[in-house]
Amino acid sequence: MRSTVVSMFVAACCGLTLLCSPAALAAEAVPAQASMQKDSIVLGAGCFWGAEKRYAAIPGVLNAVSGYADGKGVEPTYRAITATARRMDPNNHAEVVKVSFDPAKVSLRQILQVYFEQHDPTQLNRQGNDVGTQYRSIILVQNASQQALAEAVKAQYQQLLSAAGFGAITTQIKLLSEFFPAEDYHQDYLVKNPDGYCPDHSTGVRFAPTAVAATDNSALLKGKQLLVLEAEGYCPYCEKFRKDVLEQYRGTIPVTTRTSAQLQGLTLTTPTFATPTLYFLQDGKEVFGHQGYLNPKEFYQALGAFQLGDSEAFNVAFDKGTDSRFCKQYEIFKNTPDGVFIDKLSGLPLFDTRDRFDSGSGWLSFTRPVAGSVVELPDRSYGMERTEIRAKVSGIHLGHVFPDGPGGLPRYCINATVLDFVARQQISAGVNNR
C-alpha cells in the first residue's frame, strides 16, 4: 500500500510536527542535572520513517533508531517483513523506533503522550493506507515500571479518544524481547530524503490541547477560492509549493493558507492528513482537491479546469487551440486604453499595448512580449514549421510568432481569450499586485 500512496504524491507532503503541546511538555519537565542520564523505549506507530523524525525532534531525545521487533521466526529485514505472505502474519516483526532519551530533560510520560498523539492507535494492524501486521501499534517496554506508566497513559488517552467519538485503542504493551536496527538506508530516512513518505495519521486528540481561536473563514465562503492546507510545523513541500508556484501567482482567484485547525465553516471532502493539500472552493465548498505538491504546470492545468471550465479559453490554453478570427474578445481588446495584457491564469504581464499593432489578421498582434514573460517552442503541427509562444510561468498556449511584423519586426499573433487586460493607471495604483 505504501507505494500506492507514494505514487499519488501523499508521500511528498507531510508536516513533521511535535504533536504534544509545548505547555504540556513544560509541565512534565524534570529539572536539569549536570550529568546526562539515558533511558529508552521501543515504539511502533506504523511506518517508521516519519515516526523516527518526529521523536528525534523532541527536546531531550538523544537518538531515534528505526528497526524491527516483536516477531517470531521471521528474519528482521525489510525484505522479509514486507513479503506478501507476511502481510497479516501475527508473528511478523513490527516497524518500530527505539527512542533513547535523557530523563532529566524529557520524561517518559511526555514521550508516550507524543507517541499516542502522532498516530491513530485505534486502527488495528494498519495506519491509513499502510495495511499489515508490520504497521501495528505497539509499545515495547524494558521493565515493569515502564509498563505501568504505559498502561496509565494509554488509559488516559482512551478516555480522551472516547470523548471525541473514537473507538478502542488497539495498542499492545509488551516486554521488549529484542530490538533489531533496520538497514542503513532506513536510518534518518527523511533527512536523506526530505520528500519521502511520512503521512500524518494522528487523530487530532491531545492530552493537553491548547485553546485555538476560531478562524474567520467568511471570505472563503464567497465565489471561487484557492485554499492551501499547510502543516503547523516544518513541511518541505509546503515551502517548495510556495516558492515554485505561489510566489509568482498573481491571478484573480484569491489564495489562502490554513492549517488543519483553521478550517471552520468549510465543506471539504479531501482528507486533511497530508500537506500541502490544495482545495478548489466554490462558495466554501470543495469542488475538487489535490493532496501533495504540484509543480507549476500541474497547478495551472488544475487551475485552468477550475477557472475556465469547458470553454474556448481552456481549449486554447491547454489544447493549443486557436480563437476564431475577429472573435468577441479580440474586438474588445483591439482598442483598449494604454495598459498591459496579462495571463488569464497567473495574472502576470505578457504583452504591452505600446507594442500592439493592427495586422488585419483578426488576432491580437504585438511586435514583442514583455521581457522574460514567454518561451518559444518549435511547432510542426499540421505539416507546418512554426514557432509557438507559451507563457513562461503558467505554460499556457498563447499563439505563434511570425517574421512579418512592421518594419522588419516580428509579429506575435496571440489569442485574446487567454488574456485579461489591466489599464496602466490601475497597475500604477497597485491594483494587480498582491
From TrEMBL:
Signal peptide: 1-26
GO molecular function term, any single one: peptide-methionine (S)-S-oxide reductase activity
Pfam families: PMSR, SelR, Thioredoxin_2
UniProt-listed Enzyme Commission number(s): 1.8.4.11
UniProt domain MsrB: residue ranges: 301-424
Cited PANTHER family: PEPTIDE METHIONINE SULFOXIDE REDUCTASE, PEPTIDE METHIONINE SULFOXIDE REDUCTASE MSRA 2
Family label: Belongs to the MsrA Met sulfoxide reductase family.
Function summary: Has an important function as a repair enzyme for proteins that have been inactivated by oxidation. Catalyzes the reversible oxidation-reduction of methionine sulfoxide in proteins to methionine.
NCBIfam families reported in the protein's UniProt record: msrA
Protein name: Peptide methionine sulfoxide reductase MsrA
